[in-house]
Write a structure and sequence with these properties.
The complex is a heterodimer. In chain A, 74% of the residues lie in helices and 0% in strands. Chain A is an all-alpha fold. Classes of the chains: A mainly alpha, B mainly alpha.
């Protein structure tokens, strides 16, 4: 197995992606943008899992299995999320988080 | 290896799946008219099927657990004892199924709690709004219940994740179910966004834990098993920053699900905006599932990082982190409830505050003696069961009121006693139990959890918790005052649906019985000490 790229480098990429995703999810005002941020967070987890698997225990299949489950569930989650954005748009005529604020106190 | 004899052990989950599909299918096969009366008929049909099915599954799970009646070894063999024997062979106390799903006492008790909560919720929505596809609504409740059962029994990271998502995704949909109402879609959206973000954080923590275990194993074993993780953490003493980071991220992710304070932002909005029976379900079963998950994850995978919650001694580890969160939760939850004018929102803050009390049961894990730790577990579970009954009752009463009056502000409660005395009395029992007034179960639950936390050495939280309990009396009594003293807006009697009244009666009966005879379930709950893998 070639070790041209050390494990740490991959983990740093995943951590950076996670932080970008978290920042996007928290700072975006458009609901679709928030959803994209959440997807980035989930994908950084996938990178982490596959990297740990490839570098540390390539004889088992836990890492990729976990990653495939995450991809599947993320797809289901995105479907629900997009459906909700459509429902929001129908009743509020906007997808901006700041305008959807009837509940507070 | 999965064996055919493992099937009875996951029978409740299988039955829940079958019931959910049956409920979905029962609506498809019928050709119903499109009038409002016909729609209400469809709602009733699906709701009755759900309620009856969940009731039967609850009974099967109860018989299977053997808590009420255990078939003796010497029983004569006939048709019925054979069935009973096969059913009870899936009872508590065997190795986890293929290493991922434990059917120990913890799973059994939480299963009963979740299925019971789902049963009461289905009673609450027997007469709810007619919608275009009523069966979906009930099927989603059952799917979510199944996810909770998986979450409670999972002893491995992948299944935990799947359980969490299977619980949450139906709940996101349920929270925003009634499209017509702008408030509901907003609540669903907020629940979804916070939930998705929290599962991302939880997952990142899990991936770090997996990486830590994989590197420590050096490729000689499965690295996603919780017990393995604890052994490795034990071996490498404290585990280093990677393991601690994964633990903090997991606590943050699960903290969202149970709405403890820095992560509670979503819950008042969601509880207020969601349909009230769904609020009852989210605030009880989903929160209880989150606590069971937190308990199993922390005690099975991270016992070596438990630390201590004793002031002046070495603070550190997850117990002191949780003690800090409990402190914040108690103070913020109770103080924020004071100025509320909406009854649903008030109960939402009250349930945040209750989460603070429940966290104290986990803090008890800091105790050096195993006896105190098992006491903490028993107190935690007892509180969860009581809290589930109480909040389903409370939100159920609010559902009846908002259906009749059309609003859920505290001013809508005015003079309830004169308009519908039984409803007002049952609601008052739930509120008094939340406040912790003596003869009711809420008092004993609080007393027990305070006692355990005090013995652990976390007396500083107990004192503050007592103060916040006194603060909480103010808003609980404010609701009672509105119901019994303030004059009503109109004298006409308020009609409460039969389903809601029966669910309310069941939960209040449970509260009174458990309050007077806590030993009824304490004996069962205290068997949980042997969590799989410890």
């Amino acid at each position: 197995m070639t070790r041209a790229i050390p494990l740490e480098a991959v983990l740093v990429v995943a951590a950076a992606l996670f932080c970008i995703g978290l920042f996007g999810a928290l700072s975006r005002r458009n609901l679709v943008g928030v959803l994209m941020g959440v997807e980035l967070m989930l994908n950084s987890v996938n990178i982490n899992l596959v990297a740990f698997w490839r570098y540390l225990e390539p004889r088992f299949i836990t890492g990729p299995t976990f990653a495939i489950f995450i991809i599947t569930v993320a797809a289901a989650e995105a479907a629900v999320g997009l459906a909700m954005i459509i429902a929001i748009y129908r009743s509020w005529l906007t997808v901006n988080i700041d305008s959807v604020d009837s509940l507070k106190g | 290896m999965f064996q055919i004899t493992d099937v009875p052990r996951i029978l409740p989950e299988i039955l829940l799946l079958v019931l959910a599909l049956l409920v979905l299918g029962s609506d498809i096969f019928e050709r119903w008219a499109n009038t409002d009366a016909a729609r209400l008929e469809r709602v009733r049909a699906s709701a009755q099927l759900t309620a009856i099915g969940l009731g039967m599954i609850f009974l099967i799970a109860l018989v299977q657990s053997g808590y009420v009646y255990k078939l003796p070894e010497t029983a004569p063999t006939n048709f019925f004892t054979n069935i009973l024997h096969n059913l009870q062979s899936g009872g508590p106390g065997q190795r986890p199924i293929i290493g991922v799903f434990a059917t120990d006492d913890l799973t059994m008790i939480s299963r009963l709690t979740f299925i019971g909560a789902a049963f009461l919720t289905s009673l609450l929505c027997l007469d709810y709004h007619p919608t275009s596809n009523p069966a979906e609504f009930y099927a989603l409740i059952i799917f979510s219940t199944m996810g909770m059962c998986l979450m409670a029994g999972a002893t491995e990271l992948v299944l935990i994740f799947l359980g969490v998502e299977m619980t949450s995704i139906p709940l996101y949909i349920l929270a925003g179910y009634f499209h017509g109402e702008a408030r509901a879609s907003e609540a669903g959206m907020k629940y979804f966004l916070f939930g998705a973000m929290s599962s991302g954080i939880l997952l990142y923590g899990m991936s770090l834990a997996y990486g830590f275990a994989a590197s420590a194993m050096g490729g000689n074993g499965v690295a996603n098993d919780l017990t393995q993780l604890s052994k490795i953490a034990e071996l490498s003493r404290q585990g280093g920053p990677l393991l601690t980071l994964s633990m903090v991220l997991i606590i943050a992710g699960a903290g969202y699900k149970v709405a403890v304070v820095p992560f509670h932002g979503w819950s008042p909005d969601v509880y207020q905006g969601a349909p009230t029976p769904v609020t009852a379900f989210i605030s009880t079963a989903s929160k209880a599932a989150g606590f069971i998950l937190l308990f199993r994850l922390l005690t099975v995978a991270y016992p070596s990082l438990a630390g201590s919650a004793i002031l002046n001694a070495n603070l550190g580890g997850w117990t002191s982190l949780l003690a800090f969160l409990a402190l914040l939760t108690l103070i913020v939850g109770n103080l924020a409830a004071l100025p509320q004018t909406n009854a649903k929102r008030l109960l939402a803050y009250s349930s945040i505050a209750q989460a603070g009390f429940i966290l104290l049961g986990l803090v008890a894990w800091a105790a050096p003696q195993a006896f105190d730790r098992s006491q903490g577990t028993a107190a935690l579970l007892y509180y969860l069961v009581v809290y589930t009954l109480t909040n389903i009752g409370g939100f159920g009463a609010l559902a009846a009121i908002s259906m009749a009056v059309g609003g859920d502000d505290i001013s809508d409660l005015n003079g309830l006693a004169r308009r519908n005395l039984p409803l007002a009395v049952l609601f008052a029992f739930c509120i008094l139990s939340l406040a912790g007034v003596p003869p009711l179960a809420g008092f004993f639950a609080k007393f027990y959890i305070f006692m355990v936390a005090w013995q652990t050495g976390a007396w500083w939280i107990v004192i503050i918790a007592l103060f916040t309990t006194i603060v909480s009396l103010y808003y609980y009594l404010g609701m009672l005052k509105a119901m019994f003293i303030t004059a009503p807006a109109s004298e006409e009697p308020l009609v409460a649906p039969v389903g809601i009244m029966s669910a309310l009666s069941i939960s209040v009966l449970g509260l009174v019985i458990l309050g007077i005879f806590p030993n009824l379930i304490l004996g069962i709950i205290s068997r949980v000490q042997a969590v799989a893998g410890i």
